[in-house]
Amino acid sequence: MSTDTRLAKTEAQPLARRDEQRRLTPPCDVYENDAEVLVVADLPGATRENLLISFERGELSLSARRELPPEQGSVVRAEFRDATFERRFAVPNGIDAAKISAELKDGVLRLHLPKSDAVKPRQIPVLAG
After folding, report:
1. CATH number for the domain harbouring residue 92
2. Which residues, other chains included, contact 39 with Cβ-Cβ below 8 Å and sequence gap of 6+?
3. How many domains does the chain have?
4. Which pLDDT tens digit goes with each residue over 32-79?
5. What values do phi and psi take at 85, rounded to 5?
């Protein structure tokens, strides 16, 4: 019996089946400045083709799938497997929905939610009189 097999059999938790798909809530950070709200989400293994982002009625939804290549040999322990990521956020009023943009790089999603001009702080010029 190999060391890996012994380790897997002594683990307190039951082993996951490779064909099971986990639903995960990705960790996210949300930042706000005068120009935008920025959402940064960790989506390891997700690709642009398997990512869906929508904004409707003040709610931002994101979902993604991570699909791994077929296994190489018999599985002794399966902790890193196919997964579905899902997260929803209530978005504050004043976001310009037409200008929302997203970028995915190295498993990190950055969602830019620009504020509309109506809610951005603005400087009031003072005229000399």
Report:
1. 2.60.40.790
2. 28, 29, 30, 60, 89, 109, 110, 111, 113
3. 1
4. 998 999 999 999 989 999 999 999 988 999 999 988 777 777 777 777
5. -105, 135
